[in-house]
């Protein structure tokens, strides 16, 4: 029995299996809905504000961080849901080349705001995060500096909105 050949074959098979596993779990950019008309920044119509917690601390990005990542540092407020019925806020406290630590807040007349700290990852030009419930959020910049927001509940469907600097 040729143990060198057996080992080489086993190593090649393991490498192939690992590559297939990584490819199947690779993150993909979000399939954003084609809103018509396009969402515009503005105030929420929610009677309940999506206030960021008092302990939010935005840390300046490292000096060498690429501009397309550094621009995520800061806070935004806006609206979501049909007729802007929901309020939402985002504070990116720390940002790196790979991802960001952010605070997500969402609320409406029927949803009590529950601020959550999330460890997000960049996927292309989007910031993705998974909430404690297993629901997912995705954010992307628009050319005008506003941020589009997409909430994808575990149960299915999606809710969109737009945020701007306060």
Show the helix and strand layout.
Elements: H1 3-25, H2 67-70, E1 74-80, E2 86-95, E3 99-107, E4 116-123, E5 126-130, E6 136-141, E7 147-152, E8 159-164
Antiparallel strand pairs: 1-2, 1-8, 2-3, 3-4, 4-5, 5-6, 6-7, 7-8
Gross geometry: globular
Could you give the order of strands across the largest sheet? 1-2-3-4-5-6-7-8
Oligomeric state of this protein: single chain
Query: Could you spell the SSE succession in H and E letters?
Result: HHEEEEEEEE
Number of helices: 2
Structural class: alpha+beta
Description of the molecule:
By secondary structure, this protein is of the alpha+beta class. The protein has a domain at 67-164: Calycin beta-barrel core domain (Lipocalin). The chain is 16% helix and 34% strand. It contains two helices and eight strands; from the N terminus they run ααββββββββ. The protein has helices spanning 3-25, 67-70; strands spanning 74-80, 86-95, 99-107, 116-123, 126-130, 136-141, 147-152, 159-164. An eight-stranded antiparallel barrel has the order 1-2-3-4-5-6-7-8. β2 and β3 form a beta hairpin. The longest helix has 23 residues, at 3-25. The N and C termini lie far apart (71 Å).
Features:
eight-stranded antiparallel beta barrel; alpha+beta; Lipocalin; disordered N terminus; 2 helices; 166 residues; 34% strand; globular
What is shown here, in short?
The protein has 2 helices and 8 strands.
């Amino acid at each position: 029995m040729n143990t060198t050949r057996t080992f080489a074959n086993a190593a090649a098979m393991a490498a192939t299996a690992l590559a297939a596993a990584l490819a199947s779990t690779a993150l993909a950019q979000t399939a954003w809905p084609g809103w018509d008309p396009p969402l515009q920044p503005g105030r929420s119509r929610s009677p309940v504000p999506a206030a960021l917690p008092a302990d939010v601390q935005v840390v300046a990005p490292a000096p060498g961080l690429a501009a397309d990542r550094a621009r995520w540092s800061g806070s935004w407020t806006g609206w979501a849901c049909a007729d802007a019925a929901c309020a939402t806020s985002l504070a990116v406290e720390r940002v790196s080349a790979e991802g960001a630590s952010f605070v997500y807040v969402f609320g409406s007349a029927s949803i009590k705001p529950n601020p959550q700290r999330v460890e997000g990852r960049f996927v292309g030009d989007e910031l993705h995060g998974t909430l404690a419930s297993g629901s997912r959020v995705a954010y992307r910049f628009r050319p005008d500096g506003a941020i589009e927001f997409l909430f994808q509940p575990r149960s299915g469907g999606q809710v969109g909105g737009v945020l701007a600097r306060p």
